[in-house]
Amino acid sequence: MRDSGLQKSGHGLPKPRGELKELNNFRSLLQPWRVEDSAELYGIHSWGAGYFDVSSNGDVVICPNGPQGPRVSIPEIIEGIKERGYDMPCLLRVENILDSQIASLHESFGKAIKTLGYKGSYRGVFPVKVNQQQQVIEEIADFGARYHHGLEVGSKGELIAAVSHLSDREACLICNGYKDGEFIDLGLQAQRIGLNVFFVIEMPGELETILQRARIHDMRPKLGVRCKLSTRASGHWAESGGERSVFGLSPAEIVDLIDKLKANDMLDCLRLLHYHLGSQVSNIRDIRLGVQEGARFYAGLVQEGAPMGYIDLGGGLAVDYDGSHTNYVSSRNYTLDEYSADIVEAIMATLDEVNVPHPHIVTESGRATVAYYSLLLFNILDASVLEPMQLPEELPEDTPEPVKNLREVLVNISPRNLQECYNDAIYYRGEMRQLFATGAVNLRQRCLSERFFWAILMRISEEKGKLKVIPRDLQDIDTYLADIYYGNFSIFQSLPDSWAIDQLFPIMPVHRLQECPTRLGIISDITCDSDGQINHFIDQQGDKRTLELHPLKPGEEYYLGVFLVGAYQETLGDLHNLLGDNNVVSIRIEDDGSYEFVREQEGDTVADVLSYVEYDPRRIMESLRSTAERAVREGRITPSQRFAFLQIFEDGIRGYTYFER
Q: Which of 257, 363, 406, 635 is the most exposed, having the fewest neighbouring CB atoms within 10 Å of its CB?
């Protein structure tokens, strides 16, 4: 599509286009571009939750304690990463932000509990499935101990990892998911050493297995039951809640559970009610309705004689990815304080009606806990830029009629006929493509038609900004004209939700923000896959199809950051094109603004990813040595060339899977 008139970045100064050009020209008449304009353009103050800002020199800075605390430049951190021998892409983790999110969650609930006179306490837990990385779980367990912050697990592997890090006897260890005998034995042993373990019954058949293993170990387990609410939230994960959700017991099944516990003289083991409304619940009304219904179930269990004591609301606390503060799927229409106060008030109001004591409140806020503390950094390798092109003043004598018509369309474009000109351009280009397919026109004639076609679209893009109402066919024209910026990363490895469920993440340059961005672009990764691109970006009106970017400068790196990627992205990533895990660096920022590289994890080598898909790197090298030796015998290469051949492959198999300068 870009074979005619394509110019690579660095070949002359890129020119602004369409609406972006008019906007920038308007601003330049009033005042020069400022870093405040960049902050507003990319919405960093809206989605950054106070953890990110733009410095006066145009760098994105990290503020782990909020806007009034220390500030550290991301480009400065990138230089430190490179000096330590690590290439892009790199996942940057900021431990302080993880600590701040845990503290904010507990302090918000603590304030609501004190203000409203609630008699129970708050017990947060982190669902290990959201980010199973060892350093994440370790930091949550260590820092969270001061708040009795616990963990939620859904598999034997997660349970073992959690027990190895959790030592606080007041923190909850919530066991969800499928539970075989071995899973239950592990949990019972964790309870025996003093951990506060709850087995949440999510399917009717689980109870018998739990009772059987408890009798064998001569223990009385702490049990919870997950109920299916009729309340449902909207969004990507709505199916995880509601009456037809996969996990949980219906009201009738809960009554059967109670009767079975009574029959086994173990009703006193039932201590917790659990439900899950869904992940990323953007509307506070849904949350409040779910809490009210869940509290009714809790009251019913107490009235049946169960001691209870804990109500677990599951996940749902959303992250405002786009900064719009709305009930849009990538946002939320409430603050953390509103969330906490509404939950506490709704439980109080429901239980006080029936004189049921206030339980400890448990939430499994995973996404909101870890999303902010990780960001993906990568460099741009190149850009495909569609620039205004030279068109001939006089057409050759053998010019086909459709090309003449395209030229006529270009000459006659005005705001009044944009739709008509667009339709004509599509039609005449189609005619030329058909003629080329049948051999009726040659390559140069086809190329000339493409030049006129793209010139028409660029002119329409400029003129449509003058219209009060833009026709539907012309609304996405800037997307067709957008530059393609090639990023040194894999969407499938590092941002799988962006590809799989169209999750929006904040993306922006992390430097040069004192400059006006004059390009509109989309981002392509380095996989050999047409799906390996990002062409939807956050916007406070929903989303947009292009991102404002700066022209590349020859000989200078251009870095972008994808923010709020701490939840789910690392574990869900795959090995598409055998591009493996990227480098990971963790930092801790001190109060005086200094910072320390506390952990460094080298990304996968080529040998690593080959072994993941059942290749043996040693056998590969043995095969290559045999092949090279045969080539020597056949006179194709010399022994010294054989040595160079093997050396290159040995270096390659030890190398990083991503692009290296």
A: 635
